[in-house]
Design a protein that fits this description.
By secondary structure, the protein is of the alpha/beta class. It folds into 2 domains: about 200 residues, NAD(P)-binding Rossmann-like Domain (Rossmann fold); about 220 residues, FAD/NAD(P)-binding domain, CATH 3.50.50.60. It is built from 19 helices and 18 strands. The strands form 4 sheets. The chain has a 7-stranded mixed beta sheet with strand order 3-2-1-4-18-17-16, with helices on one face. A 6-stranded parallel beta sheet has the order 6-14-7-8-10-9. Strands 11-12-13 form a 3-stranded antiparallel beta sheet, with no helix packed on it. Strand 12 and strand 13 form a beta hairpin. It is globular. Bound molecules: flavin-adenine dinucleotide and NADP nicotinamide-adenine-dinucleotide phosphate. Flavin-adenine dinucleotide binds next to helix 1, strand 2, helix 7 and helix 15.
Length: about 475
């Protein structure tokens, strides 16, 4: 490896995991590692752009760290390029010493109950993508005029995001980067009650403390918890929860909510526990009309973990909207090993494993949600990416484990990518989109007004200012 013949690594996906992996690689003291990042959208940042709730702008400022990585002279961004569609794994293997898969977990998980397909029943993945302007979900039809009550299934932070977005006041949403199409629909919403349903108890909920506390500070919605239901769920001893600081604090917060007298806000968020949806029932016009729930008890597994077990007791809640926020799911990449059951790329500390032999596949690595499953906050991906990068660097040091590509030069792979995807978006193209969105936002006191259609993004990206080299070339006689 020399400055002329560096180690060349492709990172697939530009979310937190991809960017932390790129950042760690570029910090290698040899300074002889080049990173190309391929991203299926013209825009980077993964779920930081399309998942994190619009009313959490501070969290999104983590992109400043990724911008520093992107500014590294040995980093290139190729947006609007999908692995498995525009370019194959096999093609990349002939150009890079290693590939790092960082493609996240973009799909929803179904509940597998009758009525899930009814109008008014949505996956949180699509609702979140819709309000955040993800081009895949821009055209989602979400009817917030026909329903007064929405049920959100799940007790994780995504369930809290969904509930909050449904009850935030228009004046609170207006200064955010919520997609314009969603701002309009949310402002006209008639939803006045959101019921968040957990299949287990408050001690087992996956909420984090600040997010649960935030629910109690909503300007136009009361938070409601039935003390009897709360205590019934807490009566079951859970040794794990009792030693978990987050869980204990969650319980305290929820007990506080149960003691509260509603202020009389026009909207309410109700937290219910020990209930699982058993069917989504049609109402008027064949739309969702109600959610049938079965009451659960908690029983210990062989390993002592409490799980929900259905009883005979049922109840039905009238609701015109239901959102399942029960976790995300990874998708297989063509030619790359995939564990269908867990929805991840099988790996050992980030080294991708050959499913038949169980041995590491030379030059293939994985980071983030597609490595360990759809859980963990943004920061979790930093440590996780370090583990994988340590494995890459150890393999590099040992002189084995990486590939010997046929065409390891930067130009030939760029030519390949441009031939497969003529509408490739470079970092300069993204910067143009970024500038455009921010400029539109400035006019209305918002961080940005997002472009939500690929064609529009490509048009703006194509207006990118010429690079120094291009200017010099144009000036040459
Ligand atoms: C709704 C929601 C809200 C969240 N809010 C917060 C929060 O407020 N704070 C917090 O700390 N954490 C939050 N998280 C968690 C955080 O977003 C994740 O931990 C993190 O985004 C996972 O990073 P990742 O890089 O593995 O995946 P992602 O962020 O999903 O990035 C994957 C990237 O790969 C790209 N890609 C996929 N397939 C291909 C392909 N075939 N070819 C090329 N590119 C591809 C995708 O377009 C995407 O850009 C939230 C998660 C969700 C779902
Ligand atoms: N502000 C933030 O920091 C923020 C915001 C959003 C997301 N995130 C992070 O992103 C990650 C993903 O969040 P998430 O909310 O998608 O996942 P999550 O934290 O894993 O929560 C999923 C929830 O769905 C429940 N569930 C699963 N299957 C179910 C079923 N069949 N029926 C009923 N309930 C079911 C789970 O209950 P069981 O426990 O019983 O399985 C759990 O309560 C998390 O790490 C989260 O912290 C962070």
């Amino acid at each position: 490896m020399t400055p002329e013949t560096p180690i060349r690594i492709a990172v697939i996906g530009s979310g937190p995991a991809g960017f932390y992996a790129a950042g760690h690689l570029l910090k290698d003291p040899s300074g002889l590692i080049d990173v190309d990042m391929l991203e299926r959208l013209p825009t980077p940042w993964g779920l930081v752009r399309s998942g994190v709730a619009p009313d959490h702008p501070k969290i999104k400022s983590v992109t400043r760290v990724y911008e520093k990585t992107a500014a590294h002279p040995r980093f290139r961004f190729f947006g609007n390029v999908t692995l498995g569609e525009h370019v194959s794994r096999e093609e990349l293997l002939t150009h890079y010493h290693a590939i790092v898969y960082a493609t996240g977990s973009p799909l929803d998980r179904p509940l597998g109950i009758p009525g899930e397909e009814l109008h008014g029943s949505h996956a949180a993945t699509e609702f979140v993508g819709w309000y955040n302007g993800h081009p895949d979900h821009t055209d989602l039809e979400i009817d917030l005029l026909s329903a007064e009550r929405a049920v959100v299934i799940g007790n994780g932070n995504v369930a809290l995001d969904v509930a909050r977005m449904l009850v935030l006041a228009p004046k609170e949403l207006a200064p955010t980067d919520t997609a314009d199409h969603a701002l309009e629909v949310l402002a006209a919403s008639r939803v006045s009650e959101v019921v968040i349903v957990g299949r287990r108890g408050p001690a087992q909920a996956a909420f984090t403390n600040p997010e649960l506390l935030e629910l109690g500070e909503l300007s136009e919605a009361d938070v409601v918890v039935d003390p009897a239901e709360l205590e019934r769920a807490l009566a079951i001893h859970d040794a794990d929860a009792e030693t978990d600081i987050t869980s204990r604090r969650n319980v305290e917060i929820l007990r506080g909510y149960a003691e509260r007298e509603p202020v009389g806000h026009a909207k309410r968020v109700v937290l219910r526990f020990l209930l699982s949806p058993s069917a989504l029932l049609p109402g008027e016009g064949g739309r969702l009309g109600a959610v049938e729930l079965v009451r659960n008890e908690l029983v210990a597994d062989a390993d002592g973990r409490l799980r929900a077990k259905a009883t005979e007791e049922r109840e039905t809640i009238d609701a015109g909207l239901a959102f399942r926020a029960i976790g995300y799911r990874g998708v297989p990449l063509p030619g790359v090993p995939f564990d269908e059951r867990s929805g991840v790329i099988p790996n050992d500390g980030g080294r991708v494993l050959d499913p038949s032999s169980g041995a590491p596949l030379p030059g293939e690595y994985v980071v983030g949600w597609i490595k360990r499953g759809p859980s963990g906050v943004i920061g979790t991906n930093k440590k996780d990416a370090q583990e994988t990068v340590d494995a890459i660097l150890a393999d590099l040091d040992a002189g084995k484990g990486l590939l010997q590509p046929e065409s390891p030069d930067a130009e030939s792979v760029e030519a390949l990518l441009r031939s497969c995807q003529p509408d490739l978006v470079t970092y300069a193209g993204w910067s143009e989109i970024d500038r455009h969105e921010r400029a539109r936002g400035e006019a209305s006191g918002r961080p940005r007004v997002k472009l939500t259609q690929i064609e529009e993004m490509l048009r703006i990206a194509a207006s990118e200012s010429p690079s120094e080299d291009e200017l010099a070339e144009a000036k040459a006689p």
